[in-house]
Amino acid sequence: MSPHSDRTRLISSATRRGQGRRPVNPPVERASTMLSDRAAVMRDNADGPTYGLDGGAAARQLRAALADLEAAEDAFIVPSGLAAVTVPLLALTRPGDEVITTDALYGPSRRFLSRYQAARGVTSRFLPADADAETVIAAIGPRTRLVLMESPASLTFEMIDVEAVARACRERGVLSMIDNTWGAGLAFKPLAHGVDVSVQALTKYVSGHSDVLMGGIAVTDSACRRAIADTIEDLGWHVSPDDAWLALRGLRTLPLRYAEQGRAGLIIAEWLQARPEVSRVLYPPLPGSVGHELWTRDFTGAASLMGVVLKGGTEAAGQALLDALSLFGMGYSWGGFESLITHETHQTAYRVYPPALEGELIRLHVGLEDPSDLIADLERGLAAFRAALTLP
Fold first, then answer.
1. End-to-end CA distance of the chain, in Å?
2. Is 218 in a helix, a strand, or coil?
């Protein structure tokens, strides 16, 4: 293991000596067919990929950099963040198995469990979003094959003691997996905390520019690695060389963007928490917020994604807030350079245990704009929210 920091290693892997004259960035190799000089070596991948599905130079370098970042035996790339969740679930569960997760699971992941997996005999149990580690561990039964975590959780940002759950899973012969998109493989290292499979949407912070769809899967266990590799091969998943190149470029600057956006996110969160229109800011780095103690213990940095619970309001008032903004884009996803906002109250209604919210739920992603400009924009939005509440 290199003694250097993540920030240094993500760049030094591009400038390492002993590889001859070459560009800093790998070439983009658009190829389906890979040619060999002799028939005897056509199936031998020692000299490189034997077919386009195996990935070119950019894909191989991206996988190696992600594995190094997460201290993994191997890392895989797949066409979306959702695929990063579904591939391990397909690879590691069988009919009759049970998956345990919480009610705050990312919506499309929940849909995959409830629809696709359920139809194939894999059942899922959704615990309350605020379930602590002891509750999750107590729920593990004889049919439990895998515990799927998010920390912080989607939309309501609950935290869980990941290491305690992972340790209990190992003691019981159960696999643990986490969607670590918020931590980006940078601020939180799930594999170092005993988790078997760490996945993230590389669409978000790693790509960083809202122009790539991709997912990453990092593993340390050789049996999990083989099962996941076989599933990717059997499904024929492939990431385009152009997208792999873009994600690798984004990965080089991930630590700088992540730190700056986290700094700005805390400024915005503190400002929002003091506003009379706001009941709560759901942002673990914020003192007094949900999961702050666990975040302080386990994380070395913060994403800039948060939830904001307003004081009362209606769907129309929440929409008025969004419509009044000019700097926050209205669009799904996050982790890019731009600030985004969505209205999320309706999504909590699908949960088995809907949260008790004091008002409308807004999700903010803070980008790289000047925080003072974003605050002025949010002031306009909150003024529109107040005006909508006073309309007859």
1. 65
2. strand
DSSP code string of 310-322: ESB--HHHHHHHH
Q: Which residues pair with 197 in a beta bridge?
A: 177, 219
pLDDT at residue 391 in the model: 66
User: Look-up: residue for tokens 């986490």?
Assistant: 178
pLDDT at position 101 over 80:
yes
By DSSP bridging, strand 123-127 and strand 361-365 are unpaired
Is the per-residue pLDDT at 392 higher than 60? Answer: no
User: Is the Cα dihedral 53, 54, 57, 60 positive or negative?
Assistant: positive
pLDDT at 1: 58
Angle at alpha carbon of residue 90, lines to 86 and 94, rounded to 5°: 145
Query: Could you give the CA distance from residue 93 to residue 172 in angstroms, rounded to a whole number?
Result: 16
DSSP label of 33: B
Q: Residues with Cβ < 8 Å from 361, sequence gap 6 or more? A: 155, 156, 307, 308, 309, 310, 343, 344, 345, 348
What's the pLDDT at 302?
Answer: 98
Q: Which helix (H) or strand (E) holds 7?
A: helix 6-15
pLDDT tens-digit map of 157-169:
999 999 999 999 9
Distance CA 128, CA 152 (A): 14
Per-residue pLDDT reduced to its tens digit, 29-38: 998 998 888 8
For residue 256, the one-letter residue type is L
| 73-98: average pLDDT | 98
Tokens matching residue 365: 């992603």
Q: Which residue has the tokens 């904001």?
A: 308
pLDDT at 23: 85
Residue with tokens 């070119």: 56
**372-384: burial string, b at 16+ Cβ within 10 Å, e else:** eebeebbeebbeb
CA dihedral 259, 264, 268, 274 (to 10 degrees): 80
Q: How far apart are CA 268 and CA 262, in angstroms?
A: 10
Q: Which of these, 96, 100, 266, 74, lies nearest to 169 by C-alpha position?
A: 100
Q: How many CA atoms lie within 13 A of 255 on its CB side?
A: 11
Percent of the chain residues past pLDDT 90, beyond the cut: 86
Task: Give 219's strand partners.
Answer: 74, 197
Sole residue written with tokens 């630590």: 255
Q: What is the CA radius of gyration of the chain?
A: 22
DSSP codes joined into one string, 135-160: HHHHH--TTEEEEEEESSPTTT----
